[in-house]
Structures are given as C-alpha cells and as structure tokens.
Design brief:
FAD/NAD(P)-binding domain; alpha/beta; single chain; 5 domains; 31% helix; five-stranded parallel beta sheet
Amino acid sequence: MSKPKLVLVGNGMAGVRTLEELFALAPDMYDVTVFGSEPHPNYNRILLSPVLAGEQTIEQIILNDLDWYKQHNITLHMDKMVSKIDRINRKVIASDGTEAEYDRLLLATGSNPFILPVPGKDLKGVISYRDIKDTNDMIAAATEHTDAVVIGGGLLGLEAANGLKLRGMNVTVVHIGEWLLERQLDKTAGKMLEASLAERGLQFRLQAQTQELLGDEHGRVRAVRFASGEELPAQLVVMAVGIRPNFTLAESAGLTCDRGIKVNDTMQTFDPRIYAVGECVNHRGIAYGLVAPLYEMAKVAANHLALMGYGRYQGSVLSTKLKVTGIDLFSAGNFAGGEGTEDIVLSDPSAGVYKRLVIQNDKLVGACLYGDTSDGSWYFKLLREGRPIADIRDHLMFGESSNLGDTGHQGQNKAMAMQDSDEICGCNGVCKGTIVKAIKEKGLFTLDEVKKSTKAASSCGSCTGLVEQILMNTLGSDFQETPKNKAVCGCTDRSHADVRQAIREQHLTSIPAAMKAMDWRTSNGCGTCRPALNYYLISTWPKEAVDDPQSRFINERAHANIQKDGTFSVIPQMKGGVTNASELRRIADVADKYQVPLVKVTGGQRIDLLGVKKEDLVSVWKDLGMNSGHAYGKSIRTVKTCVGSEFCRFGTQNSTQMGIDLETMLANMWSPHKVKLAVSGCPRNCAEAGIKDVGVIAVDSGWELYIGGNGGIKTEVAQFLCKVKTAEEVKEYSGAFLQLYREEAYYLDRTVHYLNRVGMDYIKQRIVENAETRQALFERLLFALDGLQDPWKARIDGARKEEYVPLIPMPA
C-alpha cells in the first residue's frame, strides 16, 4: 500500500525541524517532498553573521546536507519557488511547472525583509540581510568599496555592521530609536552596548530618519540623506529594519490570513490538510521571529502529522539570549518595569556588567542582563513558573550560583545543579537530560560531537559554556576542554597558547592592556576569558601584573567555598594535617559563637566549618587567628600526610614534616586548577599519594616523586617522575614541576591534562635531566610566592570590604 504524501514548502529551519521531529516519531509514515526557494540545503540562518565576519563558511552552517535528504528518501527541489496551491486536486505547482501531489501540506514560507519605502531603495548596493545571497553580496561589496551604512539597530543590523567592519569597511549604524536593541534591552543596557561597539570602531546615528538614498552616474548608491539634510557616504546600504510574514502563497490559495497564516493550537490552517509553522504563522494574533517558538511549533505539528493528536501549541513565553558580536545579552518578560513593579539593579560599568530584575507581587516578572548572562536561563525559569521569590530575594541578584556548593568551578556547579528537564539550548529546545543521555549512550567526548548529535549550542552559541560544563560533569577528566588550537572563547580567535605567548612577549600586565594588544572583540571580555587572562597575567608577571578580583570566581573573591544554601565553608590551615589544643579550642569557640551548623573532618585531613554567613566570614577568620587553608580556589589545596617515621613502626621517612614543609613553601600559590599533594611515609601509601597532582612516597633510600594523579570523577593514577635522596630535593623537584605547570598549562587544566598534552618525556627533560632549567623554575616559583600576604589576614585588615556586604535591593 502506498504511503500518504507529505509536501513541505519552505526548506528553512522551522520546516525541516518539523520533519526531524516527525521522523523521530514515525520514520516511514510519509513519502516526503520538499521545495526550497534557495539553491542550498537546509542551513542555520542564525549563523550567517559568523559567515559574514569570516569566522565560518557556508559549508559549516549547513544543518542537513544532501545525504540527509537521501537517507530519508526525501524528494528535494532546490531553487524552486512554489507559485500555486491547488487545494481541490491537492497539489502544489512551482513557477517552472514542477508539480507534487499531497495528502498533507506543510507551509513554512518564513518571512520577507522589510525594505524602507524611500527614494533610491532600488539602487545597486541596497540590499537586505536575510539569506546566503545577501551575505555573499556583502562580502563582495566589502572587497570593492569602503563605506557602508546599516539601517536598523536591532540584532540583525548590529551583526551585519560588525561583520562588515571586520571585513575592513567604515560602518555607520542608523537607527530611529533612542538606543540600540530597544525591544530586547532597557536604555541603560542599550547605551552600554553602544559604547562597547563604538570602541570597536562602529559609528552610530541614533534617532535619525532616512529620507532618501542617493545614487551615482552608474546607478549605484553613493550616500544616505537624513530628514535633517545630513548626508553619509555609502556604497553599500544594508536594510535591517524588520521582517514581515510571507503568506502570499497561502492567501492566494484561499487560506485565512491576517498578518500571517492563521493557525490553531495544532498548527492547522483553515484547511485541516494544511499545516503551517515558523515566521509565516499568525497564532493567537502573534507572529514569532525567534527560533525557540518556531521549534515548539515544529514539535506540535510533527505530533499531529504522526497522528498522535495530543500536542498543543499555546504560545511562547519569550526570552532573548543573544551574543551580539561577542557581547552577552539576555532579556525576558517585562524588563522595562512600570507601575506596580520594583527593580533590583546591579550596575558596574567599569566591569561591563549590568543586571536589572523586575519584581511584582513577590514574583520575578522581567530581567535584563548585559555582560554576564550566565543565570539568564535560571531567571527565565523563575519567570515562566511564577515562583514566589521572597525566600531567595536577598541573593536573587547573585544568581543560581549563590545556592550552589563548590565542585571546583562556579559555572560547573550551575550545570550540575540543573535538572534533566531544564532547558539548556533555547534555540533548539534541548534540555539537559537529552545532552547527558547522548553523551553516555553515543560515547560523545567533544563539544562538536554534542552539537552534531543534539543540536545544542549549534545556533546562536550562547549556551556553549553550559554544554561544555555538562560534558565536564559527565565525562570528568576524559573531557579535554581546551585543545591547543581552540579559541579561549568567543571574544577572541586566539588560543590559550597564543594568549600566554603574547602576555610574555609583550610584557602585558593588566586585562585591559592584554585585550587591547590582542584585539579582543569586546573591551569587557566574558566569564570565560577574564578568569583565564587574569591567571595568565599574574603567573607570567608576579609582583607586576594587576590581579583583578572581579575576574575570579565567587570562591576566590570570598576566599571560602560557597554552599548550596548561599552560606560558606571555612577551612583553616593545618599544615600537614597537624593541629594543637589551642587551635582546636578556637575552632570550637568560633563554632559556638557563630552557630556553625556543621563541623566536619575533610578527606584532606582538615576541619571544615560549614554554614558560615558571608557577612560573618571576616569575623570568623579574625576569631580563629589561623591562616587560610586555600580549600576554595584554583590554588594549592591540602598536603595530606601519614604519621611517618616519627611514630609509625613502618615509616621510613618523616612524612609529616615533609608535608608541613611543602605546605609552608607553597602557601598562597595560584595555579591553573586546584593542586593537591600528599606525602606517605612508606610504600604502604596511607596518604594516597598515588592519586594526587604531586605525590611523595618515602622509601628506605629517600623519596619517590609521582605527578599527574587525580582522585576526582575519573580516577587517574599518578605517574612516576623520579627518585631523590633528600628533603630539599623533594621541594626543589616538586616546586619546579608545579612552576612548569603554572607557566605552561591552560587555565582550568588539571595536572593530568597538562601531562597528557606535553608528555612525561618532556617534563623529565625539563625537571630531571636539566638541573639548570629545574633550578630556574624553582627560583621563579619562590620569587612569585615570596612576600604574599595570607588572604584572610588581608581581609581582616580591611581589604575589599565590599565583597562581604549583602546586596541591598534598590527601592522602586
């Protein structure tokens, strides 16, 4: 029996996504025919901007190549425009006469760019920005001409302007509004965005009305004239002033249309055999232009095409998470506020961070974030669920991370705490559970593999960090997060190795200087590159580089571990695990005085005070009178020891004293990631030195040194480095290796990742075989650590007092 025939008109993202959803539900139900007006298979329209900027190619943004159509037995007609729908005989007819019969018809005709009806709009060099042809036309124009004007200060206009600027053109953005992205940002965020883009060389004419486009003798545009009479030279004018649903075909077929093809909650038109999805649709009076709602429509349409019949599309709560030329922006709900609302605002222009949360009736009703959007999805979840926020209001501005415990990385905590049903990729509607399942069942190890398998992070890219964190959490040390040739983040094309080299060769000592010297795409950076830059600077130029606290994670800023309830964990230093009665009494007194909920012995032989309020931290440290145990940052952690020869009948060396000496030597050391050491007094290895970053095991004739161990999610056994005779050699060889790791590892690499990248032979050649190199490395380590003040002591003396003051919400 022949299959029913399904015809799709429109080979874009919404229509083909419907087919993907349909094939997942009913793989062999239909004979499928697809008509596309462009001479290309389905591609990611969102990524046209990186193509314009030269960051990607057309081939790289193809979502479904020709083989995909063949695998699903799809009859594909590219570069063919459907001109007629014959509803009586149930067939579609293309302008070249090609026909296809249907039992079900799916319309996904998208939208058309709006062209301003001004004189000169038909001149050569006046184009829209909608498809691959427009992108190629702009690339060609940039090779021949110098001046461009982009009309429209929305997302598409700004991406076009940035791409043309990177292509070498002088670019002016003309916008009729008072600030950029007025539909996505409030005025403050819009002005911050304008300032950041102006630093990159873009020019702006705001509240300017285009009156006429002037041409030259060859019929090409030469200038833009405003209503004020001012003229701007332009050999290329890009219209990016909005889109209109494309419903001409549907209207000509007698389907009900009103500013779009009218559909019900099952995505059916007036004719029940005909469905419609995407930007061409009018659902409950709304036409959606964002990808996420279109994919929600696709899921519902596929459900009904598969004859399951229970899906309903009831509209979308919109949020916008954008990456405008490398600058992170997020908005959702009523971010502008108004009568009956109150605002909580955090504004730090020097750090490039602005957050505005709008509250009404004890609920979050809107959010606008600029520069730091890591908690956008959490705010959107609160907004969508309508959850009362009274119990979390005091730390609402600090985001979801203020409720999370430490796993070594603030952003990593965020991904770990998310539920499987939480959405990660808004563009493609991919939740955390889908990604985790794909990683485990399909054996995925890289971001590119996850993109290909799940489509998460394959569109706008704003969720890339979360996807990488899920990879890290799922795979542990099997995940290599920073290949040598991979860019540090979207703010730059430079790899970690390139950045380290530039800082060293150009003697860069501050983040602004480094960003300027390396042509960073944004003057502010982001939550990925700023911590990395900060570490590279202070490790390359100790005592010279400016340590920027705002470029550190919350644990390193507060010098304590943040816990899931927003309180902190305090672990005082006990070198080698050794303490005394006086210290124990002080710890007990502090626990009583500050009503510490839990006092616990850690796996590293230290005492942990859990549940300390942030505002009490400095007082707790003062009353303890002990140094920081550095149990919270990318730094030296504990040096675990066994009893050793002083008391143990099997001990061959004084492991306790060696642990104390190492911890004393390495106090206050920052590193690419956390560093743990252990010293065992005999080969029985009670201190578990075999799974530490540096493990020291005593033998009768001296000490054996091991490196690259990891006792985390995936246990890594440390590798043998060498054998030495004296305690001084232990310190020199261990210190030299740690300095080599500090100078050469990529930020957030554990020692095992560094070791795997460079190889044991390389490390032995630098540390074991070359005494001059080893001694130089050791001396550089001692120089970097000499004179550093204990961070708790510095805070007791008054440093960065503002870090420990609770945020007070601003009145409405």
